[in-house]
User: Fold these one by one.
Assistant:
Number 1:
Amino acid sequence: MPLPEYPMIIGGAEHRSDTPLTVAVPYDGQPFATVYAAGQPHLQMAVEAAKKAAPLMREMTRAERAAILLRAHALLGERRELFARTIASESGKPLREAHTEVERALTTLFFSAEEAHRLAGEEVPMDAAPAGAGRMAMFIREPLGVIAAITPFNFPLNLSMHKIGPALAAGNAVIHKPASATPVTAILLARLFLEAGLPPGALNVVTGPGGSIGDFLVEHPDVRMITFTGSADVGTRIRARAGMKRVTLELGNNSAVIVCEDADLEDAVARCVPGAYANSGQVCISVQRIFVGEAVHGEFVERFSEAARALPIGHPLDENAAVTSLITEAEAQRVVSWIGEAVGAGAKLVSGGGRQRATVQPAVLADVPRDARIFCQEAFGPVAGINRFRALDEAIEAVNDSPYGLQASIFTSDIGKAFRAARCVHVGGFLINDVPQLRVDQMPYGGVKMSGMGREGPRYAIEEMTEIKLISWRVS
Ligand code: NAP
């Protein structure tokens, strides 16, 4: 039986190319859809379509933009099951996590609609300076025009929504390039927005290999902004090629947690285990490095590994599976080889770490050398390394010993320790008595150092996706 086809969406119409691509379930390699690789003519067509739609988006009232987003919200609510099953199939994440992603995407879309209503500038107090006397001024926020959104495979719906929702709310047109592994969710989403009344061309989806499509969009003079979520390597390349364009980069991390001796250990374990192994650790804020107070290190390792061993492994569409596969077998091989390298350098493999095809058993390492790649680089797999510390400042120094700085956290019952760590850890977000993997979709979210630049969360993304124009008038 032929596979269902998902042509690109450009200018509101479906487009195929001469190069079909098969999308498969990463867990078992089962093909489930056909998409098409965009050639240069498709990319040029997408830019033209977005340029044509941009003035329509800009001229719409806030109420009209919000109404489209709310209609899309209602349609997504009706299609929860379709989206969850599509996400689970193409990204390979467990179905129950795919359902959570759909609920989060609904929240992101709802907050984007609210921000469309709220979008405003402010009065500028001109006469606070002598040169401003007799003048009144305000600034308004104007859309940029055409925005390219490039997204990763690990949250194909919600991370796309974090770009598309705010961009449309602010009156922009979008060209979306989803990850090659997960294009179907993006195409379903574009169809849904068209049904919700979005003008054709206001959201275009081009599929195919990131290198050539990415370079075209990043360098095209009519694309005003690149909003990118993905690896630090690709983000660095985009930043280098983008020239004067606006760029938002949401990149990787090797997230750290400090567990103090005065923490509620049961609670810390209960949060750190899903924090480390959800989506097989393929989450940019996955718990990767855990620093535990010396006196409770042994007990923490024991409780943590017991809980990790109990996680059911299975097919992404199996309702009970908590751990499924990585996105490719090559990624699983990389993770296992990094575990082996750490063990060779003196780390203790407490449990897990076996591999079958693209699936890696949740791995627990203890006393990991700081320069082992599984610790000092982004692991992006189901692995947690649990080290020990004596003094809080030693733990803070270890957390900061990273090229990344997205989110980190501490578990403690001492408010003084919590706020000392919050002030001294160099990250974009710091969580107290939670895991760094916590993201609530309206909060300002983004990293420092190699974790990127700019913030997401609809309100903050809109600030990045608009430009300020000052209007001053002489009143006397
Ligand atoms: P990736 O390999 O960097 O790919 C991300 C996107 O960039 C894909 O659509 C990819 O297309 C495209 N791309 C590839 N080469 C490109 C180029 N030269 N120019 C422009 N775009 C290009 O990342 P991934 O493996 O999909 O996702 C995992 C990474 O994303 C991890 O590092 C993770 O930490 C990060 N991430 C960060 C956040 C955050 O919010 N900070 C959230 C989720 C994930 P192809 O798929 O066709 O190659």
Number 2:
Amino acid sequence: MKATHIEHLGIAVANLEESIKYYEEVLGFKCYSIEEVKDQKVKTAFFKVGQTKIELLESTSPDGPIGKFIEKKGQGIHHIAFAVEGLQGALNEVKEKGVRLIDEAPRPGAEGLNIAFLHPKSTHGVLTELCEDPNN
Ligand code: ZN
């Protein structure tokens, strides 16, 4: 598998608006995009930090994945996302190596990327997202 860089860090937050304020007013980043991903029951906010992004995730429903995560663990780092070349090929390869996949095939994520998640039970506790820009 060829991963080129950390595409983003996903951070679960209880309140998107308040969290954006912290990232903008304290850390000095600029939120350049807010997007709802209905499929995942989340609202996301994006910041650029060099070529890596921060993705803040607020749940739009208590029974969504972020809602459940916050209920269990509280706010905090939720996942790490690596940019890969050839997402389906990368999924096939890690599956062959015994990694449990959450997504067997790429699906549309925020920012126009195709994404797929690997199960944290197979990745030493880190929910891992692989993503690919279909326009690259
Ligand atoms: Zn993500």
